[in-house]
Amino acid sequence: MAAPPQQMQIPKDLVETLILILRDHPDLKQREGLLKLEKPDPSNGDTHKNLEFFRLKRLIRAIQSKQFSDAIKEKPEVMRNLKNQTRADCIQVIVLLLQLKFLTPVIKPAHQVLKKEFKVKPSKKFPTILAITAEIIKTVEESEDLDIADYKIDFAKPELSDDRYFCWNITPLDKTRLSKQVSPAEASLEQEKTTSTIWDKLKIVLIVSIGITLVLYPVWPYKMRVGVYYLSYGVLGLLAAFFVMAILRYVLYLLTLPVCKSQGGFWIFPNLFEDCGFFDSFKPLYGFGEVQTYSYIKKMKKQKSKEKKALKQQPKN
């Protein structure tokens, strides 16, 4: 791999904050691959590791994205040293990621090349990728069928770098170790989410408790069962009264329609079936037509608001 441009010195904590934006950026179009490890993993003995890889040109697009630009503009101390306007600026950011070992340059040889040249059995499920190491470079140089130019990464020449592959050394689970700096707005949003989650859990517990309580009805105390018995009759009575009232108000409307046709008929509780609050459904007690309904009043307010805006937008002579 050709020598990259000169490295910049930027505080590591700020770079770690920025890497959170790039790690799962949609412009990367990441693919999951199987990286052949130089040494077996001491924790589990695995010789391969699942990692996400992408092309260099995709990383440059992510660095030049609006999301990344907004992030560095929010931090003046970063903006003094970090830019993303040109390709050279983006390469400097990539060099920082390599310097901090967030990225690893890799190659994705064909299956036949993996078997013949690198003595690696390719995976059928994921593309097999190899980290560019001194051993890999030596194998390529000694091979008669491979061209070393196809494995070089020259940042100064797009044709020798843009289609080269890189993979993350930071898995999504490892992102929790980064020093994530949260803005006040994000903190407030996170707090609202936490509160909402707690409230949702409480509602689930409440629903389950009510269900268990109803199932245990036969073992309730006698007085409690009698009270619930009469209460259920009261609820049924209210429902019956509601349906009777709904039928009577409609019958009354039909009877008064010939007399009050110009006014739109006579209604008891005009807002009974309107999209409004419970108590607002019973206000007013009576009315004519749809003039006093909630939807009509709302519609008229919107119309007046539009008329006012139209008057304001008219040019003054």
TrEMBL record:
Provide the membrane topology annotation: Multi-pass membrane protein
Keyword set includes GTP-binding:
no
GO CC field: endoplasmic reticulum membrane
Q: A GO BP term, please? A: post-translational protein targeting to membrane, translocation
| Subcellular location(s) of the protein | Endoplasmic reticulum membrane
Q: Transmembrane residues, as ranges? A: 202-220, 226-252
Which keywords appear in this protein's UniProt record, sorted alphabetically? Endoplasmic reticulum, Membrane, Protein transport, Translocation, Transmembrane, Transmembrane helix, Transport
InterPro entries from the xrefs? Sec62 (IPR004728)
What Pfam family does this protein match (any one)?
Answer: Sec62
Keyword Transmembrane carried by entry:
yes
Tell me the protein family, please: Belongs to the SEC62 family.
Protein's UniProt name? Translocation protein SEC62
